[in-house]
Amino acid sequence: MTFTVIPAIDLRSGRVVRLKQGDYAQQTTYDFDPRALARSYAEAGAHWLHLVDLDGARGGSLDNLSVIEAIAADGMRVQAGGGVRAEADVRRLFDAGVARVVLGSLAIREPDLVAAWLASYGVERFTLALDTLPKDGAWTLPSAGWTEAESRTLDELAPWYAARGAKHLLCTDIQRDGMLGGFNLDLYRYLAGAVPSLAVQASGGVRSLDDIRAAREAGARGVILGRALLEGRFSVAEALAC
């Protein structure tokens, strides 16, 4: 079973940033050039890169598309999202060299439309981002950069998409995102049992190499690594060696 280590770069106004629990008021800005940072991850052996347009996620436009296109031009396989609201946005990202488009808010709000895209473009061209916030015994699915509540739940949509052939699912426990508190392993064990056909990417809270090993043992097929890499807790090479 393939397990993929995926470094992440979050973009806001063309700069590398991280948020805590998706809160735009809790932003840390890093003094890295995003393209140079992506190259360093590739040189360390990473084959995939996860790019998030935070301006787009909240505002609904692909504000950082030029940065994404420049990074994709350097040869890494990129999955990118944030600001995808229509098929024209999907095509713009594909035209920019993105290998997989990440669909978050639209995957929650317009599942029939997204299922049609899966059938039209192919299931390998998309990663569904069903990021969740545990609340009142349910896995809720906030949208619009995690700022708006939605009625659909992870328990409902993950099996629905699996039944329609989806292959890649990114799932972040929002409470843990950027907090360096470790993955929510119960979440990934649940998904491994409920939707075994989906290759789940674990995200939110990784702090050590042991967390990566634990996510794999819990059934995840990949990990998204953000703040821990930016702050030097371990390297991409060390993560790949896990």
From TrEMBL:
Pathway: Amino-acid biosynthesis; L-histidine biosynthesis; L-histidine from 5-phospho-alpha-D-ribose 1-diphosphate: step 4/9
Catalytic activity: 1-(5-phospho-beta-D-ribosyl)-5-[(5-phospho-beta-D-ribosylamino)methylideneamino]imidazole-4-carboxamide = 5-[(5-phospho-1-deoxy-D-ribulos-1-ylimino)methylamino]-1-(5-phospho-beta-D-ribosyl)imidazole-4-carboxamide
Signal peptide as annotated in the record: none
Active site (record annotation): D10 (proton acceptor), D131 (proton donor)
Keyword Isomerase: yes
Gene3D superfamilies (UniProt xref): Aldolase class I
Coiled-coil annotated spans: none
Compartment(s) of residence: Cytoplasm
GO molecular function: 1-(5-phosphoribosyl)-5-[(5-phosphoribosylamino)methylideneamino]imidazole-4-carboxamide isomerase activity
Enzyme class: isomerase
Keyword Cytoplasm found: yes
Family: Belongs to the HisA/HisF family.
PANTHER family, sorted: 1-(5-PHOSPHORIBOSYL)-5-[(5-PHOSPHORIBOSYLAMINO)METHYLIDENEAMINO] IMIDAZOLE-4-CARBOXAMIDE ISOMERASE (PTHR43090)
Entry protein name: 1-(5-phosphoribosyl)-5-[(5-phosphoribosylamino)methylideneamino] imidazole-4-carboxamide isomerase
